[in-house]
Q: What sequence folds into this?
């Protein structure tokens, strides 16, 4: 395959200013149970080659399944034809310079999830599902396992040749309780598919889904009787998945440089962040520092090289509340005069072209101690950990999120559970109201499995590291 | 590629009771931003999905290779997971029973299937010229595709050849105001790039300082694009047969009862030429026309084989994958009947102070059983005063029940439009909603946006 890609790029180099080719083989396994019965038993494999060329500033990309040499050559011809057919680009920005990537890398795996017998995985799911059904009043129980493997080879006309193998694994559980017109859900360790890490089967076992199942189902039923989150303005503590999603939607997407430059206006949208805001735009309070780090062990946004062959590294995004950097590609970095790409370009598979995507965009820990310390210091307020629904405008400015459940904070302690909690805010005001972030001992990665972007659409998996954080004077209870 | 032949070979490897679905995508998409081309993607790929039922459980495997060894491997993987399921206990899947005499529909245009980049390049150029004439920049996509799809069991098989074309233009004025227009069709020749750009440009260039409205309830005129979003959200919350069978659906206990204004007549009409017609679903079941809401009364939900079995009914042909998608079945050819009003301008008449919405964005379901959703307005939101659109309006966040909005529907335009979001995740499967513009009273907005 290396020879085929190299030959392809040799041929492209004579006809395009720049070209790269990627071979990607993807494997996925999804297993789930539903109400104690097996539900989803899916196994998928695909492989193919994507060729990208740049001619006079216009990109052409074509992808073809399989590894046939003739098909790959036709894909190159197609990419060239597509680039040539488009209206001329007035001026061509050179790509930010990058030394050619060379080498091989594989994410660490203790136990290959694809080699674990199906019966063993199903036994864990069925045990978790049984634990969810111990609570009367639960209408629907779900337990999920998922594993992904991506193998890719990247070759460019600048001499890059690198190979990577990434394995991801995890799962989660949910219980739904229904009464009349009300439906309540609780999930563990997170909603929307659970928690997945760049790891092997050992991570799935570490989640200990069966042990957590009874509490999940009892909370789902309890939510039907819980008081509704009252509307008003209060102190809000976000933790876990909900804080990770808050970072993802209001920080991560807002600092994608293609959005900032208006390149995604037709779909994902733009950004309230200006391209010249580094060092001057106040994004949040001094408690807020954010880093995009493609080197976090276990992170779904981790890799050795991105899909343009740029080596992954930590990139400062916000420092002490002030914008410090962007998520960028070689093209977008050059457009605003950065010395080097941030190494944030990824493609969903062989048939999608690389675009700016988040690496692990992390809220740096603070010094507020443990979550209990933060609760004790807070007095009264609200705690939300698990997401149910989210929405944010196309400039990443105004958002409204709903959690599965909230807990009142009364007298510095976690109090009663509330149903239908929601909160809303304006990004820089919200982050400006952050006055405490817990200490490094509370910092962990959460995973988001379905970040959509690009046309045609690409779904990306990404992680965010956070420690619980506190926000003052937040509007809650509007939904 | 002969997709039916591939499906038959695949199912031959999988054995009795199995079903193969083969989808071959050839597509081209050209993106543009700030009146210049940005990204472009040509795809030639196939997905072979094999589903093997065994004692009521369904093992599934997929591949994008079509040689016999790969198909045999894929079949073996599907069997393996089905057999692993068997060690626990029986499931409830009754087996595939596809229709044997489904006639393919006319949803193929040979010129579109050429996927000519030059045609797309010309469309982009037209849009750029029109935008420039209005002093705005054009952003958007032009895209065409051919999808050949076939299913096969040991006993039968069927195939269909389809094309689809879509273009959207978002024009952005120097002051940041934006406007939207889009068009979906079976044939690329029906797309009019210049007209779309002009419509979007006129909205972006509308004069007047944007007004900001406080949170509250307002009468609203929704353009078809926004109505299409709302109706599609009902597909997953109200008309989802699996959610209905599990007691989670919004129509649980409400079939036969009023759920919308009497003027609301909503159906899934897969064979209608006004939609992107499809003759069979992912299980080879004939896609049946399903009246969902008749004169405001909830009348049915959509089913795949699995959800239908749970209800003791038959599939209506709305499976998204063989054996049933985990999310349940989904109606993909929704048609909302038109009303008596001439156009959006007439819908505005009689509104003293209200909101004109071109499209909704980032909609997510908050509480599915209530069909409560939240979304923001985008790319063309205006203030209605004294019966007519007067000034641009700062975007707002809508948080309301979709069935609630439909129950407050006051009027519909005669003309309907095929609306589509042009979102193509995974293997491309274009679908849209045919609907008129609509006026609804007391729509709830919970804050600002944009």
A:
């Amino acid at each position: 395959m290396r020879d085929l890609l190299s030959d392809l790029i040799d041929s492209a180099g004579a006809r395009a200013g720049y070209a790269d080719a990627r071979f990607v083989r993807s494997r996925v396994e999804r297993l789930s149970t539903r109400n104690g019965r097996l539900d989803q038993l899916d196994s998928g494999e695909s492989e193919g080659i994507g060729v990208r060329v740049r001619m006079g500033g216009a990109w052409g990309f074509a992808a073809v399944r399989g590894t046939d040499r003739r098909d790959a050559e036709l894909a190159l011809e197609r990419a060239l034809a597509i680039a040539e057919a488009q209206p001329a680009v007035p001026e061509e920005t050179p790509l930010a310079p990058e030394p050619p990537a060379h080498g091989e890398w594989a994410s660490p795996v203790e136990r290959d999830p694809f080699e674990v017998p199906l019966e063993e995985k199903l036994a864990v799911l069925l045990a978790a599902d049984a634990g969810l059904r111990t609570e009367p009043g639960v209408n629907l129980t779900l337990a999920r396992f998922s594993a992904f493997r991506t193998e890719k080879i990247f070759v460019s006309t600048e001499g890059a040749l690198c190979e990577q193998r990434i394995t991801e694994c995890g799962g989660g559980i949910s219980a739904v309780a229904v009464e009349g017109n009300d439906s309540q859900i609780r999930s563990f360790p997170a909603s929307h598919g659970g928690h997945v890490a760049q790891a092997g089967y050992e991570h799935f076992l570490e989640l200990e889904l069966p042990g957590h199942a009874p509490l999940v189902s009892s909370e789902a039923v309890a939510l039907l009787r819980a008081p509704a989150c009252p509307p008003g303005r209060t102190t809000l503590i976000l933790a876990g998945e909900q804080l990770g999603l808050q970072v993802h939607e209001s920080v991560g997407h807002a600092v994608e440089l293609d959005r900032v430059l208006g390149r995604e206006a037709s779909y994902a949208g733009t950004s309230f962040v200006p391209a010249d805001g580094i060092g001057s735009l106040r994004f949040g309070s001094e408690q807020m520092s954010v880093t995009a780090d493609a080197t976090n062990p276990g992170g779904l946004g981790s890799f050795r090289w991105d899909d343009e062959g740029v080596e992954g590294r930590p990139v400062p995004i916000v420092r002490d509340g002030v914008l410090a950097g962007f998520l960028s590609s070689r093209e977008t970095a050059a457009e605003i005069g950065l010395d080097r790409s941030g190494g944030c370009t990824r493609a969903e598979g062989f048939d999608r072209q690389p675009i700016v995507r988040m690496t692990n965009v992390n809220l740096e820990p603070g010094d507020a101690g443990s979550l209990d310390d933060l609760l004790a210091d807070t007095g009264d307020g609200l705690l939300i950990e698990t997401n149910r629904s989210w929405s944010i405008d196309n400039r990443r400015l105004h958002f409204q999120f709903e959690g599965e459940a909230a807990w009142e904070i009364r007298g510095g302690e976690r109090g009663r559970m509330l149903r239908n909690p929601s909160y809303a805010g304006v990004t820089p005001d919200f982050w400006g109201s952050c006055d405490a972030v817990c200490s490094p001992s509370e910092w962990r990665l959460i995973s988001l499995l379905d970040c959509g972007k690009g046309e045609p659409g690409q779904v990306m998996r990404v992680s965010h590291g956070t420690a619980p954080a506190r926000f003052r004077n937040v509007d809650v209870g509007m939904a | 590629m002969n997709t039916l032949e591939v499906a038959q070979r695949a199912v031959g490897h999988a054995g009795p009771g199995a079903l193969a679905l083969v989808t071959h995508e050839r597509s081209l998409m050209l993106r543009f931003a700030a009146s210049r081309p940005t990204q472009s993607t040509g795809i030639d790929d196939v997905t072979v999905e094999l589903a093997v039922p065994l004692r009521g459980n369904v093992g599934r495997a997929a591949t994008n290779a079509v040689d016999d060894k790969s198909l045999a491997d894929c079949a073996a993987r599907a069997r393996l997971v089905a057999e692993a399921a068997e060690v626990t206990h029986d499931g409830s899947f009754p087996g595939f029973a596809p229709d044997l005499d489904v006639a393919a529909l006319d949803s193929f245009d040979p010129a579109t299937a050429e996927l000519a980049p030059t045609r797309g390049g010309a469309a982009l150029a037209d849009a750029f010229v029109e935008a420039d004439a209005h002093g705005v920049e054009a952003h958007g996509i032009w895209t065409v595709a051919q999808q050949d799809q076939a299913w096969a069991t040991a006993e039968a098989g069927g195939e269909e050849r389809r094309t689809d074309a879509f273009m959207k233009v978002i024009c952005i004025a120097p002051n940041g105001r934006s406007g939207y227009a889009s068009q979906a069709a079976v044939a690329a020749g029906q797309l009019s790039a210049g007209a779309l750009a002009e419509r979007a440009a006129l909205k972006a260039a509308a004069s007047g300082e944007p007004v900001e409205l406080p949170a509250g309830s307002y009468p609203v005129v929704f353009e078809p694009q926004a109505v299409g979003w709302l109706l599609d959200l009902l597909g997953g919350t109200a008309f989802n047969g699996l959610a209905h069978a599990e007691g989670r659906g919004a129509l649980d206990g409400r079939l036969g009862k009023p759920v919308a204004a009497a003027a609301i007549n909503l159906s899934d009409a897969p064979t209608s030429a006004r939609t992107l017609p499809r003759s069979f679903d992912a299980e080879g079941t004939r896609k049946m026309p399903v009246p969902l809401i008749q004169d405001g009364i909830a009348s049915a939900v959509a089913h795949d084989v699995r959800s239908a079995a749970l209800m003791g009914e038959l599939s209506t042909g709305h499976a998204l994958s063989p054996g049933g998608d985990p999310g349940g079945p989904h109606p993909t050819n929704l048609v909302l009947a038109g009303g008596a009003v001439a156009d959006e301008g007439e819908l505005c008449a009689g509104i003293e102070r209200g909101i004109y919405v071109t499209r909704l964005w980032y909609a997510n379901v908050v509480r599915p059983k209530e069909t409560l959703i939240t979304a923001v307005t985008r790319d063309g939101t205006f203030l209605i005063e004294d019966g007519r659109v007067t000034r641009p309006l700062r975007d707002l966040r809508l948080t309301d029940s979709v069935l609630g909005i439909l129950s407050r529907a006051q009027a519909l335009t005669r003309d309907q439009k095929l609306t589509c979001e042009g979102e193509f995740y995974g293997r491309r499967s274009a679908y849209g909603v045919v609907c008129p513009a609509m006026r609804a009273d007391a729509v709830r907005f919970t804050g600002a946006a944009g």
